[in-house]
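## Example pair
The file below holds two records. Each record gives the amino-acid sequence first, followed by its structure token line.
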Amino acid sequence: MIQIGTGLKLDDRYELKEQIGHGGMALVYRAVDHRTGHDVAVKILKPEFARDQEFLERFDWEAAAASKMTHHNIVNLLDVGQVDSIRYLVMEYVRGKTLKQVIEEKAPLPYDIAGQIAIRILSALQHAHNNGIIHRDIKPQNILVHSEGHIKVADFGIARMEGDATQNKNDSVMGSVYYFSPEQASGQTVTAAGDIYSVGVVLYEMLTGTVPFDGDTPVAVALQHVSVEPRPVTDLVPGIPASMDRIVRKAMEKKPEKRYQSATEMAQDLHRALHDPQRDWSVSTQTDVPIPMISQVENPRPNSGQSERTKWMYRGLSALLAVMMALILAFGVYKAYDMIFNVVTVPYLINEYEDKAVQLLGRAGLTPSITRTSDGEKPAGAVIMQDPGYDARMKKGDIVYLTVSTGPAQQEVPDLTGKTEQEAREILSKVGFTLLVLPEREVSRETVGTVVRQSPRAGEIAVQNGIIQVALSGGCVLLQDLTGYSYNEALGILEKMGVEIKDIKDMPISNEAIDGTIASQQYLDRNGNILENNTYTIRNSGAGVLLAVFRLEGGGE
């Protein structure tokens, strides 16, 4: 018997990589389709159900239901297969989170985000209902939120073809009781209105962070769906428009005939409420042109008596509505992405050392801004204040302001010898001192640009915010003895060394053999003063040499 697990390759094509979920009757794996190179989701019927006729039928029902639907808000079926006793479905792989995870992390969601997500769920359900399919298990665990913000309805595992009134064993507990419609809770036939009730519950949970009914047992919860009115969402979360509460209550009416009669109707009210949340929108009001779902936009069919002009007007109106809806949905995708994937919580940073705090903010996608102050109790480098505080919600890239201790007001000056200017500046800033770099570089064999001298010296006590002066190495170049070289030879040597000739002094002679050769040299600083050290100088520093050149009396260069 084939062992199900990572590494298994089904049909020599789908290689299972990791288990990403499981349900009552199936295991779900992320797999690689070696024919296309894409990730896919493979849903495998659990081995214990491989010979159970009821579960085989249920699995086939899901495949049949999924095969009838192709929609951008539904996890689409790609393939169906069987290897020995292993039955599997290959589905679109959605990289992201379940809506349940999003609710647990972010709820209560802003009402406009919750409304946009609900509209996409309803768009998917309208497509399913148009194809005669009732989902029967709408809950946040079955709604996937793609990492780019797209919403996908998944798991039609207990879906029913409309008109199929058969009731299999365990149907009453296959869905999640927290999202049951009253008719589902009481064992009656579930219609499209049952899916709409469940969307109302999901919207309730997005808006408030809690389900409308809870209890110690599934039966206790089911009874509340049948007989108890939910507490208004506006009572639980201040600021939610009353129009959103009315939509939730209408979707969750106990009697199916009092609910929205289609997913499109509920989506239309949500569109209106998001556009003008203070108005009392109701689908019973017919004074406004209804806003259709994208999948529902059709060209009106004028009668034969209408003029061509009227026909084109209707066609233009339909096209305009389609464009408007496309823009609304595109904006909604952006808003959902922005809310779900760009909003993060601020970590707790108090007492963390600066490097660790910056690292934690980086992981959260936030930007640190650091100020420093003395603190007699906190060690230098420790975070003593943060703004915003722990668990605040911010967008990625936002700035978190940190106040970092520089230690006591008076302390020892650190040793900066051998440090670069940037390193010295960072060391001093962390303990509350200011760096001042002297403009003149010093002749030194130390690495160019490193500290060779500081004042006050290392170990001395200084007051915080005091200035620490440093001199940096300019490096050095050994000036060879040029005596006896011709002027042109000496000039070439000095150019290669980066040392300029500051002045030339002629020394009259009568010996033609040494005419034009170097008689002596002196070393001058950039200001023309003679250097005491006649061996080293700084390359390209403005320092140079004074050359004395032998010249025949009456001659010249």
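Second record, same layout:
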Amino acid sequence: MKLDPKLDTFPKLLLNRKQTTPDRPAIREKDFGIWQTWTWSQVVEEVRSLACGLAASGFRRGDKLAIIGDNRPRLYWGMAAAQSLGGIPVPLYQDSVAQEMEYVINHADVRFALVEDQEQVDKLLEISNRCPKLEFIFYDDPRGMRHYSVDHLESYDSLIQEGQKFESENPTYLEAEIDKGNARDISVILYTSGTTGYPKGVILTYENILITVINSLDFDKLTEKEECMAYLPMAWVGDHIFSYAQSYVAGFCVSCPESGATVMHDMQEIGPTYFFSPPRIFENILTTVLVRMEDASWFKRKMFDYFIRVSKRCGIQILQKESVGLIDRLLYLIGDILVFGPLKNTMGFSKVRIAYTAGEAIGPEIFEFFRSLGINVKQLYGQTEASVYITVQKDNDVKPDTCGIPFPDVEVRISEAGEVQYKSPGVFQSYYKNPEATLETRTGDGWVFTGDAGYFDDAGHLKIIDRVKDVGRLNDGTLFAPKFLENKLKFFPQIREAVTFGDNQDHVSAFINIDLEAVGNWAERKNVAYASYQELAAHPEVYEMIRNCIEQTNTDLAKDSEIAGSQIKRFLILHKELDADDGELTRTRKVRRRIVLDRYGSLIDALYSDVNRGHIENEVTFEDGRKGMMIADLEIQNAQVFDHMKKTG
């Protein structure tokens, strides 16, 4: 596919939106409980003033603009403004600590930063003396900034005023800069989550992103009438594609919630038709639903349980327009009126036409739960290096344990070692300032090594087993796929995170993080007093609860001859939640296994001994940035394992 040179960059697409759909809503933001909407014509004027303000401050072609904060219209406009001048936006994870930001800002040679609020300003000021190339910081929210007196620290509003003055003196400057852009220019640099070391800067061109986006719009029949919620980190490639790139190409409206805590409520008000989420969001939603049902009346719980059984029996078949008996269809219709409809409305999914989950594997039970309610949730498999899309599920051809078929214009192959490899128009140009990593990841003829182990089933659907480096074998030869086991455990609302071990061992063991909301709700109902997460996690009844979850998982594993031997035999409940600030998780909540192995080695050794307690002393980072030591003696328990049994039904 060749792009139209008149529409081969986002600034050109934005100007075209003013010509074709000037009065359609482009973006919304909820502030102080009120939704404010900007049309495409208004967005063009905002971006124009912002770009000219950056130009007045010395921003030139090739400069980098760091974008830091929650999903806010002004930050998205900052991306378009930088691109209009031939610059490159570099979004950072807003919950990164200052030291993490320091690495990216220095590595990306960032001169300018556009941030949301005082919190982000403080982080940059903390590291400014170690970031010699960072010259200008612009902030959106002025709250708390009144008494700041720092050179080259300026408000968004003053930047806009400078831009309006610059434009009046240079009326043709911006259009001339936009015209210089072309499809092969760098559109954005997105940094990977860094599960195995320092994050890498993925360079994506306009051509990479736009061809991929055009194919995605055609694949799912997305139009300017869609409604999308922008709530995921702007530094994540998923948000960049779904909330920015697709919006500019299709012309649909993106809504920014008031805060992370109000997303569910704001979704109810907006009613998105198009939704994208990593599995952890669906897991959290399911946990919230189940916790609320525990507080419901006896009659409501019984009704919920009954109709959920009906949905599991026939809901997916109805969604996929398959043949279903008349009685089941009538029961499902009643369930939709009494349970499914109100439940979807509570979750903000009443109008969802298409929902995607990606980022890592989702538990089949969680996936089927949402589809059985009539929500068209599909899986896609992708990477930052692919501009997201590698494989995707088609409507009415959805399986819970696969990632679908190759996306249009994408070739996928499986190496002799079982690694998934692909080639596509979306393949990244290179890793920024890292030619060695580029050569290790991408071949000269465009094939990319994903590092994921997988295979195609008989229907041509891709199945991802785990990371190649993480897949192992027990001493008896049984396949050990940790992520597969962990996803099964996280289906239970009481379990927030799990880390499993077993490679070159006689059995599988697990670390468990309880879900504080779900287990705390249980404790409140049972009048169980506790003063901290650590105390609740160590409670005997909590251990019994988690052991029951593990044994239910083992019962399911026993039905599969390939993995029946990888049932979980020993476990402990960690005294603290795995935390990105402690380096144990990435900012997208992926487990950094190497760090967990290093930090909790003494507990792993205890799991593979005959002791019933494990001792741990480790450093933790508190919410205010202070560090301290946590010392704990953790109970280790055994879980029942079952003989292999054939599946029935």
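Notes on the second record: DSSP finds 21 helices and 28 strands in the chain. Residues 298-319 form the longest helix (22 residues).
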